[in-house]
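Input sequence (119 aa), recorded before submission:
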Amino acid sequence: MNVIALGSSGSPEVMMKMSEQLLVPGPGRDAAVRDTGTAVDSSGESGIQVRGCTLESYNPSEAKMDLAFETAEGDLMRVSMSLRWMGDDYKVRPADDGTPWNDMSQLSNLSGYVLWSGA
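Predicted structure, token format:
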């Protein structure tokens, strides 16, 4: 879930650390690291709040998660992320172009999601 918040920060330094620490090594991570050089620094506030999640598929080494979040404008959105177990945590397996999620679309409600609340 940190990938969504950190990846939308706009800060090249934050995005570089996120890519190195939270993405599975390989062509996708390499592309994400390269893309951090073109990121435009912003205030560092993404305005994104995670609202819920579901597991689309799971086995001990890989999972596919659907993550719902709310934008600063109040829109409910969702993305799908592929995860791989590495060491003692799941890491995001980005597409070869460096994109850490896919299938972004708008939601009308959070029905079917395990709700997430936090700070």
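Checked by second reader. The first strand starts at residue 49 and ends at 58.
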